Amino acid sequence: MKAARKPAPQSDLLKRILVSLDDDKAENIVTIDLEGRSALCDAAVVASGRSSRHVAAMAEHLARRLKESGYGTRPVSGQGQGDWVLVDAGDVIVHLFRPEVRDYYDLEGMWSVGARQKS
Q1: Among 74, 71, 69, 114, residue whose Cα is nearest residue 96
Q2: How confident is the model at residue 115 (pLDDT cuts 50, 70, 90)?
Q3: Does a structural domain hold residue 6?
Q4: Which residue from 8, 13, 83, 110 lies 20 to 30 Å from 40 (Cα-Cα)?
Q5: Domains in the chain: how many in total?
Q6: Tell me, what CATH number does 48's domain have?
Q7: How does pLDDT run across 49-99, given as a tens digit for each residue?
Q8: Residue 116 resides in a domain
Q9: What is the pairing mode between strands 92-97 and 43-48?
Protein backbone atom coordinates (compact mmCIF):
# COMPACT_ATOMS: atom_id res chain seq x y z
CA MET A 1 0.00 0.00 0.00
CA LYS A 2 1.37 3.40 -1.00
CA ALA A 3 1.76 6.05 1.66
CA ALA A 4 -0.40 9.12 1.08
CA ARG A 5 1.57 12.08 -0.19
CA LYS A 6 1.43 14.98 2.21
CA PRO A 7 0.52 18.32 0.65
CA ALA A 8 3.45 20.72 0.51
CA PRO A 9 3.29 23.48 3.12
CA GLN A 10 2.18 26.80 1.69
CA SER A 11 5.01 29.19 0.99
CA ASP A 12 4.83 32.80 2.12
CA LEU A 13 4.43 33.80 -1.54
CA LEU A 14 1.49 31.45 -2.04
CA LYS A 15 -0.17 32.65 1.17
CA ARG A 16 0.15 36.29 0.04
CA ILE A 17 -1.36 35.44 -3.34
CA LEU A 18 -4.32 33.62 -1.80
CA VAL A 19 -4.97 36.46 0.67
CA SER A 20 -4.85 39.03 -2.15
CA LEU A 21 -7.29 37.05 -4.28
CA ASP A 22 -9.61 36.49 -1.33
CA ASP A 23 -9.51 40.21 -0.47
CA ASP A 24 -10.50 41.00 -4.08
CA LYS A 25 -13.42 38.54 -3.99
CA ALA A 26 -11.96 36.04 -6.46
CA GLU A 27 -14.22 33.04 -7.03
CA ASN A 28 -13.44 29.31 -7.18
CA ILE A 29 -9.80 29.64 -6.12
CA VAL A 30 -7.85 26.43 -6.82
CA THR A 31 -4.21 25.78 -5.98
CA ILE A 32 -2.47 23.17 -8.13
CA ASP A 33 0.69 21.62 -6.65
CA LEU A 34 3.17 21.30 -9.51
CA GLU A 35 6.30 20.59 -7.50
CA GLY A 36 8.20 17.90 -9.41
CA ARG A 37 5.68 18.04 -12.28
CA SER A 38 6.74 21.29 -13.94
CA ALA A 39 10.03 23.06 -14.45
CA LEU A 40 8.20 26.40 -14.66
CA CYS A 41 6.85 26.71 -11.14
CA ASP A 42 6.05 24.89 -7.90
CA ALA A 43 2.36 25.81 -7.93
CA ALA A 44 -0.33 27.35 -10.07
CA VAL A 45 -3.31 29.23 -8.73
CA VAL A 46 -6.46 29.39 -10.85
CA ALA A 47 -9.31 31.75 -9.96
CA SER A 48 -12.28 33.44 -11.59
CA GLY A 49 -13.55 36.99 -11.61
CA ARG A 50 -17.07 38.15 -12.36
CA SER A 51 -16.13 40.27 -15.38
CA SER A 52 -13.17 41.35 -17.51
CA ARG A 53 -12.81 44.45 -15.35
CA HIS A 54 -12.81 42.38 -12.16
CA VAL A 55 -10.17 39.98 -13.56
CA ALA A 56 -7.91 42.86 -14.67
CA ALA A 57 -8.30 44.65 -11.32
CA MET A 58 -7.41 41.49 -9.35
CA ALA A 59 -4.25 41.07 -11.44
CA GLU A 60 -3.27 44.71 -10.97
CA HIS A 61 -3.83 44.54 -7.20
CA LEU A 62 -1.91 41.26 -6.92
CA ALA A 63 1.10 42.59 -8.85
CA ARG A 64 1.12 45.76 -6.71
CA ARG A 65 0.81 43.85 -3.43
CA LEU A 66 3.63 41.48 -4.39
CA LYS A 67 5.87 44.42 -5.29
CA GLU A 68 5.05 46.13 -1.98
CA SER A 69 5.91 42.88 -0.16
CA GLY A 70 9.38 42.80 -1.69
CA TYR A 71 8.82 40.36 -4.56
CA GLY A 72 9.73 42.94 -7.20
CA THR A 73 7.85 43.85 -10.34
CA ARG A 74 5.91 40.83 -11.58
CA PRO A 75 5.12 40.26 -15.27
CA VAL A 76 1.40 40.43 -16.07
CA SER A 77 0.04 39.17 -19.40
CA GLY A 78 -3.47 39.65 -20.83
CA GLN A 79 -4.56 42.48 -18.57
CA GLY A 80 -5.82 44.60 -21.48
CA GLN A 81 -8.45 42.03 -22.49
CA GLY A 82 -9.25 40.72 -19.03
CA ASP A 83 -10.45 37.31 -20.26
CA TRP A 84 -7.39 35.38 -19.06
CA VAL A 85 -4.71 37.24 -17.13
CA LEU A 86 -1.50 35.53 -16.08
CA VAL A 87 0.62 36.89 -13.23
CA ASP A 88 4.07 35.31 -13.13
CA ALA A 89 5.03 35.42 -9.46
CA GLY A 90 8.08 33.20 -9.95
CA ASP A 91 7.51 29.98 -7.99
CA VAL A 92 3.75 30.46 -8.35
CA ILE A 93 1.94 31.28 -11.58
CA VAL A 94 -1.51 32.82 -11.19
CA HIS A 95 -4.20 32.39 -13.85
CA LEU A 96 -7.23 34.67 -13.53
CA PHE A 97 -10.20 34.03 -15.81
CA ARG A 98 -13.71 35.06 -16.64
CA PRO A 99 -15.75 31.92 -15.78
CA GLU A 100 -16.63 30.90 -19.35
CA VAL A 101 -13.01 31.28 -20.50
CA ARG A 102 -11.85 29.22 -17.53
CA ASP A 103 -14.30 26.46 -18.42
CA TYR A 104 -13.11 26.49 -22.03
CA TYR A 105 -9.40 26.11 -21.21
CA ASP A 106 -9.95 23.80 -18.20
CA LEU A 107 -6.47 24.06 -16.65
CA GLU A 108 -7.57 21.97 -13.68
CA GLY A 109 -8.48 19.14 -16.06
CA MET A 110 -5.16 19.49 -17.87
CA TRP A 111 -3.28 19.01 -14.58
CA SER A 112 -5.67 16.24 -13.45
CA VAL A 113 -6.95 18.12 -10.45
CA GLY A 114 -10.11 16.71 -8.89
CA ALA A 115 -13.28 18.67 -8.32
CA ARG A 116 -12.72 22.40 -7.94
CA GLN A 117 -12.40 23.32 -4.30
CA LYS A 118 -11.78 26.70 -2.76
CA SER A 119 -8.36 26.98 -1.14
Answers
A1: 74
A2: very low
A3: no
A4: 83
A5: 1
A6: 3.30.460.10
A7: 999 999 999 999 999 999 999 998 889 999 899 999 999 999 999 999 999
A8: no
A9: parallel
